[in-house]
């Protein structure tokens, strides 16, 4: 009883005398978090806070409740990319004349970041679909004395949206070829003279952009490419198996995971705060996944967190790296926060808030203030040498 009294006294004393912007000692965190989380803005969220070095649970609230992750779901995609794809590899899209007359062959590699804007493509060193379309049409006219009727396009390794974009671009130029899907081997056998080749940035750069700016399309495509590389179906079913297998291999219970997409856009996706916390902890322990954490937005500095913490918790600016998530009625955040000489892993899933931007803004501010109570820079103490004195 005496020990319990002393513990309560310690927390109460720290709450009274500790400056509002100072970080809390681990033993004081639960009481402060309970107070901050007991407010309408977050509407009974699921929360987990773990010691990043030991995995010790410092605080948890509704840790096993199934909640909507929103774009926090992209953490699974990021981890899967690192596990299954070569981060130094690049996607190539080749266009050639076919072995038969009036035939073009487009042999892609499912480039997830091919751009319809030539200006954007060149600025970001991405493959340009408009360049492919323009140059292919120009060379086709040259080869056939200006007539582009009755052309066939044999293609492989392109997304359906890429095909739709090509058809739309060419239709405006009165070019309406027949599109025929073939496999990669058939594309190679039917290729003759190369017209152009477009190459994407490295997978690592695409991953960084995906997490930094929460790109839904890239997350979906990268997740499917990861499933394909693992020998699984190139669809959401393959992604589901991929994620479940990953959790099991990491010793994490996947039974409450519900996957409807890889981006987090579906309101039917479900995770638990404990599951995401354990995933982040396991990845945090492995140097291989350093790129995942380095790719996350930084509070008040970059990506989808560039405008956060500036006014809500200025002391946390630059000290939080996390994946954001937003749906109507849902605000989530999961990542790491620097707290002096330690680092915490945190997960906050507030998916029971009211609909509308005002409610979302209040929830974000509440999460920022929560992290602001534990965020603090790690400033090592310096001991200067004592000058010698002459006696």
Task: Please provide a written account of the structure.
One of its GO terms (molecular function) is serine-type carboxypeptidase activity. Pfam families: Peptidase_S13. Keywords: Hydrolase. Belongs to the peptidase S13 family. A five-stranded antiparallel sheet has the order 2-1-10-9-8, sandwiched between helices. It starts with a helix and ends in a 19-residue tail after the last helix. Helix 5 (129-143) packs across helix 6 (160-171). The chain is 38% helix and 19% strand. The relative contact order is 0.16. Mean pLDDT is 92; it is low at 1-21. The chain folds into two domains: 18-84 and 206-372, 3-Layer(aba) Sandwich (Beta-lactamase), CATH 3.40.710; 90-201. A hairpin with a 5-residue loop joins strand 1 (46-51) and strand 2 (57-61). The chain is α+β, with helices and mostly antiparallel strands and 391 residues long.
- Give the averaged pLDDT, no decimals: 92
Order of helices and strands: HHEEHEEHHEHEHEHHHHHEEEH
From the 3D structure, determine the CATH topology of the largest domain: Beta-lactamase
Tally the beta strands: 10
Strand content: 15-25%
Q: Unreliable runs, pLDDT <50, ≥5 residues?
A: 1-21
Separation, N- and C-terminal Cα atoms: 55 Å
Give the overall shape, derived from the CA principal axes.
elongated
Helix content: 25-40%
Main sheet properties: 5 strands, antiparallel
CATH class descriptor name of the largest domain: Alpha Beta
Assigned CATH architecture of the largest domain: 3-Layer(aba) Sandwich
Structural class: alpha+beta
């Amino acid at each position: 009883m005496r020990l319990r009294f002393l513990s309560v006294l310690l927390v109460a004393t720290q709450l009274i005398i500790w400056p509002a912007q100072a970080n809390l000692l681990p033993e004081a965190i639960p009481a402060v978090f309970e107070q901050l989380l007991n407010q309408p803005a977050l509407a009974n969220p699921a929360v987990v806070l773990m010691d990043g070095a030991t995995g010790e649970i410092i605080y948890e609230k509704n840790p096993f409740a199934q909640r909507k992750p929103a774009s926090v779901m992209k953490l699974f995609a990021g981890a899967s990319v690192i596990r299954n794809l070569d981060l130094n590899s690049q996607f190539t899209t080749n266009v050639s004349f076919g072995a038969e007359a009036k035939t073009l062959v487009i042999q892609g590699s499912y480039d997830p970041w091919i751009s319809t804007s030539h200006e954007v493509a060149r600025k970001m060193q991405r493959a340009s679909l408009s360049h492919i379309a323009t140059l292919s049409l120009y060379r086709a006219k040259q080869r056939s004395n200006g007539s582009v009727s009755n052309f066939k396009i044999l293609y492989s390794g392109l997304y359906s949206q890429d095909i739709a974009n090509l058809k739309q671009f060419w239709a405006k130029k009165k070019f309406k070829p027949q599109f025929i899907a073939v496999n990669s081997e058939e594309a190679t056998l039917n290729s003759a003279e190369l017209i152009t080749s477009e190459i994407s940035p490295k997978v690592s750069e695409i991953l960084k952009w995906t997490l930094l700016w929460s790109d839904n399309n890239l997350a979906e495509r990268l997740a499917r490419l990861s499933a394909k590389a693992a020998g699984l179906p190139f669809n959401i079913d393959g992604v589901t198996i991929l994620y479940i297998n990953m959790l099991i291999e990491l010793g994490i219970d996947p039974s409450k995971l519900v996957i409807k997409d890889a981006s987090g856009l579906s309101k039917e996706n479900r995770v638990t705060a404990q599951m995401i916390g354990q995933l982040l902890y396991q990845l945090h322990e492995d140097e291989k996944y350093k790129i995942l954490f380095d790719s996350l937005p930084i509070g008040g500095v970059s990506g989808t967190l560039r405008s956060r913490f500036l006014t809500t918790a200025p002391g946390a600016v630059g000290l939080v790296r996390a994946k954001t998530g937003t749906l109507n009625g849902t605000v989530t955040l999961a990542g790491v926060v620097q707290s002096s000489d330690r680092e915490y892993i945190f997960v906050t899933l507030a998916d029971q808030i009211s609909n509308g931007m005002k409610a979302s803004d209040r929830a974000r501010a509440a999460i920022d203030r929560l992290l602001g109570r534990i965020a603090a820079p790690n400033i090592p103490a310096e001991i200067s040498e004592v000058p010698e004195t002459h006696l």
